[in-house]
Write a structure and sequence with these properties.
This protein is mainly alpha-helical and about 170 residues long. Helix content is about 60%, strand content about 5%. Strands 1-2 form a two-stranded antiparallel ribbon. It is globular and about 55 Å long.
């Protein structure tokens, strides 16, 4: 890979990250890991604070504060976990609505970056991105971190499928 290609990819990556952050701020009024927490909790397996902390790579106090904020906003609720000592995190109805808005907002923020591509270019880019992600071959914990904002309803052939339940264990 040339330095030129690497530099262009870095610029596009930052532009996309900025657009996603702006969309999340507009939808949620929070940035940082709040949008990712809502998406991950919305996968529905009822993660504990510890499982969420590991997936988002947060400190224990940071994860607790994040969940407290989301609970205070009426987006997340704590329920009885699998054992008497654990608490499972679930989205409220308002949380599910925010999650859907975040996922739609994320894709809407990215789509304009692809407007100049022909259908053939789009297909070629998808193939190249798939190849790049496949070549990464990250451990599952990293896959979960990479996919923490993914809309699993549109990613039918994920090159790095993340098993959030496995990471949560």
């Amino acid at each position: 890979m040339s330095d030129y290609t690497a530099n262009l990819l870095g610029v596009v990556s930052l532009a996309i990250a900025n657009r996603i952050e702006d969309a999340a701020r507009e939808i949620l009024n929070h940035v940082g890991e709040s949008p990712a927490a809502i998406v991950v909790i919305g996968y529905g397996f009822g993660p504990t604070n510890e499982q969420l902390r590991r997936t988002l790579n947060l400190s224990h106090p940071g994860a607790v504060r994040l969940v407290d904020r989301l609970a205070a906003d009426g987006l997340v609720e704590r329920r009885k976990g699998e054992d008497k000592r654990s608490v499972a995190l679930h989205l409220t109805e308002a949380g599910h609505a925010k999650r859907e808005a975040l996922l739609k907002g994320r894709l809407a923020a990215i789509r304009p970056m692809l407007d100049g591509l022909s259908p053939e270019d789009d297909e070629a880019l998808a193939g190249l991105l798939h190849k790049m992600l496949t070549a990464m071959d990250p451990p599952d914990a990293e896959r979960c971190r990479l996919c923490r904002l993914c809309d699993d309803s549109v990613c039918h052939t994920c090159p790095i499928p993340a098993d959030f339940r496995e990471e949560a264990a």
